[in-house]
Design goal:
mainly beta, seven-stranded mixed sheet
Length: 261
C-alpha cells in the first residue's frame, strides 16, 4: 500500500459509533449518525514580566467533548445516558392500553385480555368526544344500567348503552424490551470508537477511527417527539487515566480502505 496521506484528508461521513464496557461487551451501536463534533479545548495562562510583557505561557486543563445526533433512537445509548440496562425483548411486561369500542347490540370486544379485572375502567363516550359516565363492574351476571360485565375480552353493557361508544382503559401483558431511568443510577463511562470514511485529493479512500478510551457520558439529553421523527442526541467527555493508566484523550487512526496491512 502507498504511504498514507495524513496532510490532506477530507472526512466525508461517520459510519458507526460503538461503545463498550470494561468487560469488552458492546453497549450500543449508532449506524445512522447525522453529525458528530469533537471539540478540543485547553487553557493557556500567560507568564508575564516587567511591564506586563508576555514571557511565555502555561498550558493546562486539556478537555475533549463529543456531541452528535443519531437519526434513530438507540436503546443502548439511552442505557449509557441513564445508567440503566436494556432488558431484552423476551421479557413479559405490563402496559396500559386505551381502546375506543363501538357497542354492537350490548357487547364490545377488547383487543387483548386484561391482566387484572380491577385494572379495567370503562366510560361511555360523549358525542363531543369527551369521557362520559363511568360504568361500574357488575356483581350480577347481567349488568344493570350504569354497569358493565367483563368476560375474557368481551364487555357486556345494559340495553340503555346499546349502540354507544365505550372508552376502555386496562392493563395488558406484552412481550417487550425496556430501558429505565432510575433516580439513583447515573450515566456510564465507556470505551467509544467512531468509524469514519475519508479521502484525499487524489481520490484515495481511507478509514479513520477515533478511539476514546474513557468516554464519560452526560445524562442531559432530549428526545423531541412530535411532528418530525425523534432524533437521539448524545454528549460525552473524554477523560484521561483510569485502570489502564492511559493519558490519551483520543487516538485518530488512519488506514487504507479494506487493507489489513
Amino acid at each position: 500500500m502507498s504511504t498514507i496521506n495524513t496532510e490532506k484528508l477530507s472526512i466525508t461521513s461517520v459510519e458507526l459509533i460503538h461503545g463498550y464496557n470494561l468487560a469488552g461487551e458492546c453497549e450500543f451501536i449508532l449506524d445512522e449518525v447525522q453529525s458528530a463534533t469533537v471539540s478540543n479545548t485547553e487553557e493557556k495562562v500567560n507568564i508575564t514580566g516587567k511591564g506586563g510583557r508576555v514571557l511565555g505561557s502555561l498550558k493546562k486543563n486539556k478537555a475533549v467533548k463529543v456531541t452528535g445526533s443519531n437519526g434513530l433512537i438507540c436503546g443502548g445509548m439511552m442505557a449509557a445516558q441513564t445508567g440503566g440496562e436494556v432488558i431484552n425483548s423476551e421479557t413479559k411486561m405490563i402496559v396500559r392500553a386505551t381502546e375506543i369500542l363501538a357497542v354492537a347490540s350490548t357487547t364490545a370486544t377488547l383487543t387483548s385480555t386484561p391482566v387484572k379485572t380491577e385494572s379495567v375502567k370503562v366510560y361511555i363516550k360523549n358525542k363531543n368526544g369527551t369521557l362520559g359516565t363511568a360504568l361500574k363492574a357488575a356483581a350480577a351476571e347481567t349488568p344493570a344500567a350504569g354497569e358493565y360485565k367483563l368476560a375474557d375480552k368481551t364487555i357486556t353493557v345494559a340495553a340503555d348503552a346499546a349502540g354507544s361508544e365505550l372508552v376502555c382503559f386496562y392493563d395488558r401483558e406484552v412481550t417487550a424490551a425496556k430501558v429505565s431511568n432510575a433516580s439513583d443510577s447515573y450515566s456510564k463511562t465507556l470505551s467509544v470508537y467512531m468509524d469514519c470514511l475519508a479521502s484525499d485529493p487524489c481520490g484515495e479512500l481511507y478509514r479513520v477511527q477515533f478511539v476514546f478510551p474513557r468516554a464519560d457520558f452526560t445524562g442531559n439529553f432530549d428526545l423531541a417527539i412530535g411532528e418530525n421523527p425523534a432524533v437521539h442526541s448524545f454528549e460525552f467527555e473524554s477523560v484521561a487515566g483510569g485502570c489502564g493508566g492511559r493519558a490519551n484523550l483520543w487516538d485518530c487512526i488512519i488506514f487504507g480502505d479494506g487493507a489489513d496491512e
